[in-house]
Amino acid sequence: MAGNGLPALGRVKLSDLVPLEGLPSDSYKLSVSTLSQSLAQYSAAIIQLSTSDGALLRSSLESARLYFQHKPSYPAADVIHSDDSQEWCKTSGYHADPQQWQETYDFRPGLTPSEPTTEIEFPPAGLADIFSLLGRAARDILDAISFYLNLRSSPFTEILDNVPLRNRETSSSVLSVCCHSRPSFQGAQHHGLTTQEDGHLGMFSDHEHQVDRSLVTIVKSDRPGLHVRDFHGHWVLVDGDLGPQEAIVYPGLALYQATAGYISPALHRTDIGNQQGSIYGRCSLSFKLMPKSMTNLNCSEMRAAGHGVEAQFQLPVPVDDFMQRSTDQLLNRSNFPTFNFPTVQDGSMKPMMRRRKSNSRSKPLPPSKRLRLEAQRVLKERVQDIADKKGIKLRFCTLKDCESHIQSLDSPCTNIRMEIGWPPGVPFVHPHDLPNKAKIGFLETYEPGWSATHDMELSLIDPGQPSQHTSNCNYHSPNYPCFSASVSLFKQ
């Protein structure tokens, strides 16, 4: 694919991506190929809507300008944005992020009232229609990607919302109406200045590297400013020459997980400094097609299609757990500070990884201490989360007592160990107090693939005897996550 790549961001008509019965038409195959190549090269593509749909988008952007223009200059304390990942599927209404000069109105069917609750607060107009329009478009794009990967028709239906929603259901997908750098919005404290490749100054939000956790995101803005990082590592302005009926589409982390890393999530940022002469700021509509909260992301469809599924994607991931993990954990990149991109060699894209350069000024932690700290982190993030969801209060035993408990069928901790899936043969004590070999069993149970992603000198744990764990590890095997592409795209 890389050998005959696209010279610029791919443009496809949405009408050509609508699946029909029977054999695929030439226009469908060409559009799917263009979309897929553009996502592989630029992590984004341009979709062209119909004339009537383009008019609806433009009128909604006009409504958004008026909505934000009538908001107060300083946001109230109760609408300041807080990044609470546990409430990812409950965002609704207006909130502001002064640090990024960003205001957002989230429309989520089933949670956001369709009618104004007071005579004063009127939401932007046409949100229900835009939600329906972009929702259909996102599903058609997702099906086109599935066709390219040789998956069966509509393979992601089980993890998507019902169409239409059932009674008392809340949409997982969300339509966000955003406004950057409104001149009358005076809550910002500072910006981050960066220099673009052409030498001009650009002003970007403090959180410069952003990645959505959606399956697919569609964005339409009223002025340029969206930059996406391509597979060479260069920032590309993707909405610089959009027509009135065109929008940007890019994949998110959920699609990366569901396709076993075959589709790279788009790394993006927004230029908030190029707004001279604008009395409204930069307004945009962003639709995120999200998986349902009570489902799992798994790669069974990829496996059924004959694609290789690496170790880090073998186990299903609950969506709620997925939304709470850090980006580094989701990409299995705990040792990498930023995204790496594959390089083109001999006409093919070969994954390349670079380890973070060790800081010569700081002395690395000894293996035993790193093992202890990792076990404590897993207890806090994984085990406690399982216990909280099941309503279990963890009451650890003492190491000496629990060595006899694990041999008994009737002991104080038997039920708790079974409920939270505590590893067999490991005493039910705080991981800080576990012997080192037991810590390894604890980590391998709650962090699949842990052993392959940590270069620890495990032989030091039991001096004089080779560790069984170490002898079973082949650190040069391509099946381990540490040798997978950090951002693999479309594997052939």
UniProtKB/TrEMBL annotation:
Residues 342-370 are annotated as: Disordered. This is 2-oxoglutarate (2OG) and Fe(II)-dependent oxygenase superfamily protein. The lineage of its organism: Eukaryota, Viridiplantae, Streptophyta, Embryophyta, Tracheophyta.
